[in-house]
Amino acid sequence: METTTADAATKAATATATRPSALTLPAVLAGVALVAMSISGTAVALPGIGRELEAAGSPLNWVVAGYNLAFAAMTLVAGSTADRVGRRRTFIASALVFSGGFLVTAVSPSILLTDIARVVSGAGGAGIMAAGGAILAAGYEGAARNRAFALMGTMAGIGIAVGPSLSGVLISTTGWRGSFAVFTVVGLLVALGATRAHESRSARGRTDWAGSVLFVAALSLGMFALLEAPALGWAHPAVLATAFGGLVALVVFGAVQRRSSSPVLDPALVANRAFLGWSLATLTTSVGFLGVLVFLPTYLQSATGLSPAAAGVAMLLLTAPVLTMPLAAVALVNRGVPARLLIVLALGLVTAGNFWLMALGPEDTVLITAAPLLMIGVGMGTSFGITDGQAMALVHTDAVGMAAGFLNTLRGAAEALVIAAFGAALLGLLTHRLGDGEQAAEISSGKLTAGHSGVGVEAFTWAWRLTQLGVGAVCLVLSVAVAALILGRRSRSGAR
Fold first, then answer.
1. CB 306 within 8 Å of CB 315
2. What is the pTM of this model?
3. For domain 21-197, which CATH number applies: 3.10.129.10, 3.40.50.10400, 1.10.357.30, 1.20.1250.20?
4. Terminal Cα distance for the chain, rounded
5. Pick from 493, 410, 426: which is nearest to 140 by CA?
6. pLDDT 10s digits, 218-242
């Protein structure tokens, strides 16, 4: 009896020692929401930044683009680094870098320094997302892990949804510099809260510097080409050169990873069919969600005459499910509903919703788009709730940072890719239809004048429908690939 009691006491003490701190989840969730809000809300500050720093065009656009590029390029490297040097240490350092970039932006006297500071903040945001996911994966198990990642998805959805409106309020009350100062303070509080989290790391060896540099170069060059192509033209020498350079760097990166004893992206991770399937699932929902989120409000206001407020309310049909579905989806999984079935249904909703948006027109637009927007939102919210948790359950604890970095790299790259490609498709189709590039640019940006409103609305609608056809087709192909990878395969480590 005494032995049994001693064993029980030992087990209880061990469980207490390894149980995550009460501040661990709040700190990670706050960091995730902060990064998501900074991704979606910074564009609201661009007019004020442009006026005060006398900037326009590409230098001003890089306030947003530089952040997004650094975020996507650095996430995988940050995740692998977290595995080696410590997930808590990387999270705290990343929050400090994030805050430092925002602080420099708040006091910056020039657009060049502002752009550099935004790149620094993007790198910090990458570390927050990658190390934050790794902390949750290493600290929680089973149903608790599923709930933690569902909350992470919910906070990301909340951040994306409220980012523009909250940034607008902050800018209205404190100015654009004050809004960046507020993000600085919150970032420092996130870093402080994370000091209470338990440290964890793997024993995977030294950092793969060659692989890290090649990956950052490949993704940076590729994304630069995508971001600049709509403005410079897809055949511009600078676009072609950077795209080719990115492709070469990516090929060399793949060769280096196969020979590295401690790769930044383990080939075995990508070769895991189930993990790759869940990774493609998050890519698919991002493709089907982001174009509609960014570009539909312009159509609603210019082609149908809705006010900005009314268009914002209409977009709640898309964004509200992203706030509610993650926890609902993980509750179903924890009650025994197969996650693989849920994600296939979610992808089906996203794909069907994008095809349905081909019915978009200037008459009864909100009524026509209500069902497809809800379908896409429900699919995206379901994906937010279960993909990360299911993918992490397939990964050894030593590689959770790498896995989290890979997942968030796909999301970040998808954001830049979809926004650039969707905008370029609309502009290209409008130019083809109207035969006037300048007029097409005005219409695609929502400037429908009385002189060409009828023809413009017709052309805008036609371009929208064809673009949606392309998005729906991409989602369909990716969804079929996901189903082939994850259906009928039993996952280990509790993934269902």
1. no
2. 0.75
3. 1.20.1250.20
4. 39
5. 493
6. 888 887 787 777 667 778 888 889 8
